[in-house]
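Following up on my earlier thread - several people asked me to post the actual chain instead of describing it. Fair enough. Here it is, all 462 residues.
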Amino acid sequence: MPRRVEDIVRTDRRTVRDIPVEESSASGKRRSDKPAPQKEEKGREIHIHKLDVTVPIHTGPKPSISKRRTGTSKKKGVWWVSIIAAVVLIVAGAGYVASTSFARAKFTIVPVVIPVTADTTIVATGTTTAGYLSYKAVPYSESFKKTIPAKSGPKVSTKAAGAVMIYNSYSRDPQKLVAGSRLSTDSGLVYRLGSSVVVPGYTVNSKGTIVAGSLKASVTADAAGASYNLSRGDGLVLHFPAYKGTPRYSAVSAQLSTDIAGGFIGEKKIVDQRLLASTTAELQASLTAELVARAKAGVPEGYIMYDGAYKAYFAPADLSGTSTDSAILTVKGTLYSVLFRQSDLVAKLAGSDKASSFSSYPYRAPGAESLSFTINNPKDFSPAQNNALIAHFKGDIELVGIVPTDALKAKLAGKPLSATLAVLKSYSSVIDVSKSAGELFPSWANGVPTDLDRISVVVEAK
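Reply from S.P.:
Thanks for posting it. Predicted structure:
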C-alpha cells in the first residue's frame, strides 16, 4: 500500500509562502497578496510539502516583472523587422541593378513597301546604251546523236554556203566590196562573197552614237568539207583579210545572218526524209530542254531569266557513219539565255520616282521573277548579235526597302526609349515609322542597352 504524505511540519522560520508579494494592478495601485480561496478538491487529496527558503530583504523598490518582459520583447521585435526590411531592400536593389544591367530591347520594324503594276513594252539592247535597258546574252552549246536506218549513197564533195550581215562603222561613205572578196574567221576558215555589194556608210544618232551601215550578202566556203559548216548561234565575227593592218579591219566586218551549211566530203547516206525530219525535231527538243535547264541553273545572283527568254540555233543535221545499213544523226545546237539585271529592270518598270524614293538604300522586288514575259520581235531578235529586243512585261510587283539592321542597332544603342523615334525617322526612306515599334525588358530599364547583342531588330518579312 503506497505511502501517503498528509502532515505538514510547521516551523517558526519564515518561508517564501509566509512573505506577502505586492504586485501592480492594471490601475497602477499596489495591493496586498491575499490567499485565493481554495476549492475543495474532490477525490484524492494531494499535499505539497513546503520547503524552507530564506529570502534576502530587498530595501529598494521592486521592479515590475511584466514591464521588464514587455520591454525586451519590443526591442527584439524591432530588431527583426529592421533586419527583414534591410534584406528586402538589398534583394530589391540587387534585382533592379541586375535587371538593368541585363536589360534587353526589341524593335519590330516594318519596311516601306511601294506597289507596282507592270503592263508595258520595253526595248532592250545587248550593249550599254544610255536610256535603254540592257540584256546579257549567255551562250550554251551541246550536241545530241542518234543512230537511224540508212543506205549508202554516192560519194559527194560540197561547199558550205549561207549569208552574212556586213557592217560599216569605218566611214560615212559607202564601202564597195567586189564579188569573191574573202572573209575569214579567227580560226582561219575562209569564205568568199557571192556577188559585189555596196555597204552603206554609218550614221550618228541624236545622242552622238555611231550606228553602223549594214547590208546582207551571200557567202560560200573557200573549200569543200563539213569543217566549214558554221552555226549562226556561234556568234562568230568575220573580217576581211585584205584590210588587215588598217583601221578598216575592225571597222568593216561581218556576222552570220544564217547558218553556213552543206559542206561535206564522203559517201552520202540516204535516209527516209520523214524519219530524218522527225528524229531531227526530237533531238532539237531534247537539246533545247537540256540547255534551258543549264541556263536557268547558271543565272548569277541579281539577274532574272524568264521563261521563254532565250533563243536556240541549230546547225544542219549531219549524217555520218561507215555502216551500210545505218547512219549517225548529229544535231548541234547553241542556246542564248537572255538575262536582265533585276535592279535595272525593276527601276525601268516602276519609274525613276518610285525607285529613287528609297534614297541610297537598296530594296527588294518580290514578284519580279513571276512577271509574264513575251518577245515581240522573235524573228528579228538575235542575242548572238546583241541586237534590239522588244519585250512585253506584265504583272504585279512590290518594292520593299532593305533595312540596314546593323547600322540601326548601333544608332539605337544607349538611347532612352523616348529618343529612339528620332533614330527610326532617320531611316524613313526604308522604314515605315508609323507601323514600327520598340519595347524594353524589363519595363523599368533606363534605356536601350549598349550591348548590341541585347538589341533585337526584327524586320517583318514581306
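Residues 1-19, 21-34, 36-55 have pLDDT under 50 and may be disordered. That should answer part of your original question.
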